[in-house]
Amino acid sequence: MSRAAERLKLLINHLDRSPAAIRAAPTSAQTFSYSSHPQRLRYSFDTDLLTPDQRLFYEENGFVLIKNLVSEEDIDKFRKEFERICRQEVKVPGLVVMRDVAIVKSEFIPDQKAVSKLQDFQEDPELFRYCTLPQILKYVECFTGPNIMAMHTMLINKPPDAGKKTSRHPMHQDLHYFPFRPTDRIVCSWTAMEKVNRQNGCLVVLPGTHTGTLKEHDYPEWQGGVNKMYHGVRDYDSQHPRVHLEMEKGDTVFFHPLLIHGSGMNQTQGFRKAISCHYASADCYYIDVKGTTQENIEKEVKEIAARKYAVGDEITFQDTWAVRGRVVQGERVSL
Fold this sequence. Notes:
Elements: H1 3-16, H2 52-61, E1 63-66, H3 72-86, E2 96-99, E3 115-119, H4 125-128, H5 134-144, E4 148-158, E5 169-172, E6 180-181, E7 186-192, E8 203-205, E9 217-218, E10 232-233, E11 243-245, E12 252-255, E13 261-263, E14 272-281, E15 285-286, H6 295-309, H7 317-322, E16 326-329
């Protein structure tokens, strides 16, 4: 029997087994069991990289965690570049430097508010190198196919909470920010740049919510304030089982853009860093979000772009994404 036939037989055997007989692939300190199993695999491709168990786990839960994927050497280089940017030793075109509304003391420049996030670092060669790492792209291809665009880049620097809980990130779906589809051909890679746990505000996910629809988002009504652009889901089941993704330096989680997730407060004295990129198939296409729940984020993004680049209403929501997208594998087909 050929290798491909053996793999297909193995996969069919998994699908034919009862839910109780299927064990989820461990993705952190916790393991999860399946409540049901899909009759076909909708959310991933067979590239000979993900095991059948990993594909089934993503199908059911909307995420998969890969241990020790990014080297310590690379992460240390990304950290040094982040510090250079914070010290304003390098200027990066298009980079958005976001600061926490309540944290006055930064890591590197004492008289400035803390940098909580770098967004759109696609013009910084060192940080963008993360998006092109071969070991990352091998996994991304399992979800997007071979033509891959890096669409949204972030380095998150969760500061120690000052008591106002502003270091929290409300529960949200990433698709809220994206005017391109199809949804299932979009995936995020999120890599811990140090040990991430419940104390310093690890990711919290609601497994299985990726099978639902895009929900309405807005700023949550939190005392102490909410950081700019940190929209949250207006209505979700707060009793839904949740998983805290505790990770080691270099661990990487891949997750679906409809998966509801967020992060808690950083209750330590240090800053918690992670680097991430949202990828999409280059075959994806832009949509008009007018008349949808995404209109509020479209308006906010266009207002920011107008101030930053001194442009008027001629710029569209799609334009703001098209200029940021970079092909990282294959051909730029549509996006």
